Amino acid sequence: MTIGNTLFAALASRSFSRLQSDIGSLQERISAGTNDPRPSANLEQAVRLAAAKEQRAMLDRFSANVTTATDRLAHADLTLADVSTYTRELKDIVLQLGNPSLTDEGRSGLRIEAEALRESLFSAANRSDGLGQGLFSGYGTGAAFVQTANGVAFAGNGGQTVAQLSESMRLPTGIAGDEVFMAVRTGDGVRSIFEMADDLVAALSPPVSM
Predict the structure, then answer these.
(1) Angle, to 10 degrees, between the axis of helix 193-204 and the axis of helix 43-97?
(2) What tens digit of pLDDT does each residue of 50-75 get?
(3) What distances in angstroms separate CA 124 from CA 143, 177, 192, one per listed residue?
(4) Is the pTM above the cut of 0.90?
(5) Please, what sign has the CA dihedral across residues 129, 134, 138, 141?
(6) CA angle 210–90–146, rounded 5-degree value
(7) What are the two backbone dihedrals, phi and then psi, of residue 151, each rounded to the nearest 5 degrees?
(8) Which residues of the chain are under the pLDDT cut of 70?
(9) 176: phi then psi, degrees, rounded to nearest 5
(10) Are 58 and 64 in contact (CB under 8 A)?
(11) d(C-alpha 109, C-alpha 38), whole Å
(12) pLDDT for 187
């Protein structure tokens, strides 16, 4: 089947018009100093651009991870500093308890102080980072420690959160709560810091009359 002269002329005219439009568009971009944005215009440049965008996205993720890790470690550092302060103050109460001139009123005041410090320790152990993730709960999403009939118990897990800071660097951003608060080495063996605080409060409490 042959194509008539009229149809051939119409198709050719249409093709020439499209080419003329493309040439005009390219000339406008050349005059404006911009490159042709179409990948087909420069495949090598398009591949490099795609790789650069992917690299930039990866670097943005690493940068966000650095910010998150920095925030989390800062929260943990401040919390551990507070815990250190609370334990020193509990130690001071123990030393005052050994004073033979301590009055019942003074003992009562020390007990109130010890109870407040014990609650501060419990609150610090359950602190979270800026994203609401427990500092000492591992991979757990709930509170790291809970109050039970037998005292404070660890409710987290042994997982350690990490942050991917580069293609080859992973930084731990979590501390095992059971190791920090539940494994204090003493002359009587390994004990919970909460158990020791509870014992101090009990020692400062008046005997129950029968």
Answers:
(1) 30
(2) 666 777 777 777 778 788 888 888 88
(3) 11, 11, 15
(4) no
(5) negative
(6) 75
(7) 110, -170
(8) 1-52, 208-210
(9) -65, 115
(10) no
(11) 79
(12) 84
